[in-house]
Amino acid sequence: MKKIFVGKITGAFGIKGELKVLSHFEIPEKVFLKDQLLYLNNEEHLITKVRYHKNKYLIEIDNLNDINLVNQYRNCDIYIDYNKLNLKEDEYLYEELINLNVYNENKLIGQVTEVINDNKDNILIKVNNQFYIPLKSNYIAQIKIKENKIIGKNLEELIL
């Protein structure tokens, strides 16, 4: 099983055992769902209630509805089984882009060495530690994870 980091519990919310979750995960709607399995301290837990409040997810796990039962999870990292994300063929995680070969049309121009997310819909892929390509449809024609490649377009202005 491949575990993926999806967030951190920052504390409890109220006295009924809800946990505040800070997450910058790129597809939180696939993670923070009722009946989703999470891993805290390498232990499996089930989300029994979830809501979004003031830029954080509030979750209840294992029907624990008392603050005294959940305080032990403060500052815990949250992981999910990659396979539980149920990604569609055209969906991927940013970390899966690392080491993909990047082509400008048919010419290999390098490999993705880093993915930068400023959490404001500005995603950049760094190629060969030299230049950045915005992860936008006007620069990226296709991403083929299984074929280990990204096919770019209109990249001339970015790689001069």
**CATH C-level of the largest domain:** Mainly Beta
Question: What's the alpha carbon Rg, rounded to whole Å?
Answer: 19 Å
Which residues sit in consecutive blocks of at least 5 with pLDDT less than 50?
A: none
What is the H/E order? EEEEEHEEEEEEE
Pick out its properties.
Elongation Factor Tu (Ef-tu), domain 3; SH3 type barrels; six-stranded mixed sheet
3D structure, described in words:
By secondary structure, this protein is an all-beta fold. It folds into two domains: 3-85, Beta Barrel (Elongation Factor Tu (Ef-tu), domain 3); 94-152, PRC-barrel domain (SH3 type barrels), CATH 2.30.30.240. Helices cover 2% and strands 47% of the residues. It is built from one helix and twelve strands; from the N terminus they run βββββαβββββββ. The chain is elongated.
